[in-house]
């Protein structure tokens, strides 16, 4: 490949392959450059360090996984249905990630753990979507009222973590996991319901 | 020590010390016997295998950590206060375990992961306490009514796992963790509240 035509996205794609093949502990920038047929200098022109490259790959992976969830956040539904649909979409997207390609999921779970900034940004993005759903629902009289909608949004995120935190990935194909998800959703939705 | 005076509890105490000192991957029955000044046969007279001994140590550690929680389950309080107090006691007992002796906590977290039967029994015990609190609260008109109180008890357990699952231990000394606990408790309690 000609170095001058190299895009950041091509590097990230190659880096993801290299990370999957060699594992996060062994993959190097030189491996990525070799996979692309360029010098490691060409990679460093886009990403100033190995850490920056790893973080960019991790963010890209999370962003892609998050696309259907962001779409669900915008769904034109009454508050309770919109929240349940958002939580179900989040659970499904994580569950598919791990079942479709467990190796890549393990690789990225390790990479995500490496960068607390990436985790914090990811959680902030998800809880902001939750807060918007709660705010709209409260305006429509379905939820709340809330003293602190951001705090409640984080409580909803925390209360459902068995169904989105990769630490629980091994439980996501167990019998009864969908019933457990429904039970937690119903409990959370009952807790959010508007009581005049 | 005279082998004939050796009790199971002395063996478990010594085994806990050995596990802490050598780590779960290296500790052997011979190390435990040596610490007690007996032959490994004397240990095997009480525990038929290394796995049985490890499981017994793990169960004893969990039982001891659980004592104040079991007491809180029996507290003579109205349903909502009893549940909040039980959840706070569970969180406190786990948090103290990790802050008081992080090394022992890590050792036992690894041992607990080894035995899914121990984990399942521990969760069953905790959710049975929760179910009793919910049942009493429903009778008093504070909670429910519930279609399936055991399912709801498990939902409460799942919804609060950020505050009792050792996977989150690293977050238990963060600023704001108590506010986060309160927010989840309030959400869960609102979800359980009796609505006539």
TrEMBL record, chains A, B:
The keyword DNA-binding belongs to this UniProt entry's keyword annotation: yes
Pfam families linked: TetR_C_27, TetR_N
Residue ranges of the annotated DNA-binding region, renumbered to this chain: 28-47
InterPro entries in UniProt: DNA-bd_HTH_TetR-type_CS, Homeodomain-like_sf, HTH-type_TetR-like_transc_reg, HTH_TetR, Tet_transcr_reg_TetR-rel_C_sf, TetR_C_27
HTH tetR-type domain residues: 5-65
GO molecular function, one term: transcription cis-regulatory region binding
Keyword Protease applies: no
UniProtKB keywords: DNA-binding, Transcription, Transcription regulation
PANTHER family per record: HTH-TYPE TRANSCRIPTIONAL REGULATOR RUTR, TRANSCRIPTIONAL REGULATORY PROTEIN
Protein name (database record): TetR family transcriptional regulator
């Amino acid at each position: 490949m000609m170095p001058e035509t190299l895009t950041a996205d091509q590097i990230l794609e190659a880096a993801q392959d290299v990370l999957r093949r060699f594992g996060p502990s062994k993959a190097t920038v030189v491996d990525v450059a070799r996979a692309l047929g360029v010098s490691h200098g060409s990679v460093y022109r886009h990403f100033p360090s190995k850490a920056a490259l790893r973080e960019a790959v991790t963010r890209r992976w999370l962003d892609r996984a998050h696309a259907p969830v962001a779409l669900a956040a915008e769904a034109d539904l009454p508050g309770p249905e919109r929240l349940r649909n958002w939580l179900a979409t989040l659970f499904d997207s994580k569950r598919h990630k791990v079942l479709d390609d467990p190796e890549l999921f393990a690789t990225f779970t390790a990479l995500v753990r490496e960068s607390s900034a990436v985790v914090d940004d990811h959680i902030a993005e998800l809880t902001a979507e939750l807060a918007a759903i709660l705010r709209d629902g409260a305006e429509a009289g379905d939820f709340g009222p809330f003293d602190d909608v951001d705090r409640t949004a984080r409580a909803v995120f925390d209360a459902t973590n068995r169904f989105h935190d990769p630490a629980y990935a091994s439980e996501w194909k167990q019998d009864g996991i969908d019933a457990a998800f429904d039970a937690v959703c119903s409990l959370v939705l009952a807790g959010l319901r508007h009581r005049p």
